[in-house]
Specification:
Length: about 800
Amino acid sequence: MYSLFRKEITSFFGSITGYLIAFVFLITNGLFLWVFPGTYNLLDGGYATLDGYFSLAPWIFLFLIPALTMRLFAEEKRSGTLEILITKPISLLQLVWAKYFAGLVLVLLCLLPTLVYFYSIYCLGNPVGNWDSGAAWGSFIGLFCLAAAYVAIGVFASAITDNPVFAFVVALFLSFAAYLGFEFVASLNWPSSVNGFLIELGINEHYLSVSRGVVDSRDLFYFIAFSFFFLLLTSVFLRQKQTAISGQLRKMGMLVVGLVLLTYISSVWFFRIDLTSEKRYSLSPISKQFISQLDSPVKIDIFLEGELPPGFRKLQQAIIEKIQDINAYANYQIRDELMDPYEMVSNTEEQKQLFERLVSLGLKPTDLRLQRDEGTVTKLIFPGAVIHYKDYEIGINLLKNNPSLSAEQNLNQSVETLEFELIRAFKLLVDDNRPTVAFMGGHGELGEPETRDIRQALSENFSLADVVADELIQDTLPDAVVIADPVQAFSEKDKFYIDQYLMRGGNLLWLIDPVQVSLDSLSSGETTIAFPRDLNLNDQLFRYGVRVNTDLVQDVECVMIPVNTAPLGSAPKYTPAPWYYSPLLSPSQSHELSRNLNRVKSEFISSIDTVGKNPAIKKSVVLHTSNYSRRVETPVEVSLQSINSPPARSLFSQSELAVGVLLEGQFASVFQNRMLGNFNTKNIEVLPQSKPAKMMVLSDGSLIANQVSRRNGQIQTLPLGYDRYSQQTFGNKAFLVNAISYLCDDAGIMSLRTQVFKIRLLDKVQIREQRLFWQLLNVVAPLVLISLLGLIFNIVRRRKYGR
């Protein structure tokens, strides 16, 4: 067996044909990956990854491996030496294995010089070495599995003919059919269960899984079973003249039954090893729990197809890969399909209707600029997906757009939140019981027009209600209560019912203004006085663990407003100027509810201190100012004229002042051991300590208020967080939706937002200045290496046999 193996290796290095095949393979790889522009070009991709290499490999292997294996048995048959080999004291299966391992080693020898690509990406990382080596080596395992399957097909094709060219064509056809043929058949109108079965039979589904750097026992078993099946089929074909065909068919039938049984067992008991450094392809237990609740097939239409820049292609690939990870644990198949809205319709009217339908499902369009030979072209895309489940469909946005971040950071954050967005959508589809969010009234809180935008956003996932304090204690408690910018003091009775609602496990979102500022006076150009507002809540909030200070916060990072800078008597000339009383707040990057969110627009906000040392309460700052802020004690005079004489920059010496605090745990009742008097009019049981509950305190009621204009009896609202001067929409709505979702999140889905993926980019400067060097290195160096390997082999062989 070893002699046959060595014979094939020797014949490869001893003939010009072997070198020619290796050279063609390496040159093709080098040109597509490093020279030719396109999808596979690693330098143009911008990311420190070899994804292009592993995507191109299946197509290059379709020609390389049949060329390497076409002579293995066909040459033996043509020269008449096969009969001699069969008479040797080795079994036919050993003969087949010897040829198979020889072909596999020859493929590995051709792959060995491509390790230069690994070195190049390592050096081109920004900084050097900024790449995921675990994912790369894991992908190489997938490449080896693919080669093993193709070589098995090539051995079989070589065994059925004595013509190497015919063997090449048969191997090429069978390899292509095994790689994509089953998917073509599955694309016909079959039931979903049949579709899933057909796709699982193909090589592509399993290679895509392993080539990401995820070792799945089911994929490994598939490649082992696939290779073993073709090798056994080869030995049966070679044995057909020696054994009755009926016996051979019986053995093949038993083999097929055994493989089907083992495949079923491997699909029930399996393991997955994620070799990526951040475990980006591992699902959390929470995700697995919701996936297991899907009791019907799911189809996901992904509207990211067509001509896309590298960053969007990476996002597209990440979405497909995340769906593959979810599919690994789903009881029913989750099928995805890429769609280009421009290719789905034939005329402008149908396109308009399609776009309107996508918007109605909640997908947000964005402009995409593409550089073409004729110039810059702008088109509208919908970077999201529509999930179809039973008779329901839901749209999800998958692209995060934070104006303060670069395009690469936004795309990376989009990839980080993919699991969260998909699992949250699955929860909505399988769970008909929506949490209830109640807006409290009775103290001059914001009305429906001022909270219309946040209500509309919440209505997609929550049931909404309006309550007063004494309606909080019911048989079924609201999951969360929003107290939005009250202006009247709370009575002790209302405080009692709020307290007992909290004691029963209710969740509270306070948005309160401890300082009163007359905006009407300010907008008319007059000077106003900011003075403390007594809401009669200080003792209650202090007992829970926070103190809202009666000061105002100024910040260098703030909203810009237009100011007339023209000389007196001249035509007005408006110039943007900073309005320090309207800070742009930063959501905390260390907490799951506030990570990766845009800055939040505020106006006349106050600072918050945490107080007390109750070990049962966990306190987290979720919203804070920038590193250049300061506190102004009240009462204080406030005027737009202060823009002309701003405070000295040295006064902004305080950093990250807390303006939003989250408290979680078991709270002590404010009314414990107190005489209730007439508070408890409903004679409810007074609980001294709460069940596990959550509370968030924000020191600005305007954070939740959208701008309202009333004209001719009609009410028009602007989006929450919209700034009409800069025409930007800040992250108020996203932050508050996340905050309420976190308060109502008993399942822990919000914890999925804690995933952090490192951005691994190529050094664009080095690529621009040394592009030709890296192209020559990766095209020429592999050819030199394979030549040196052959030279060393022939020198050693000549010295051995020359003596």
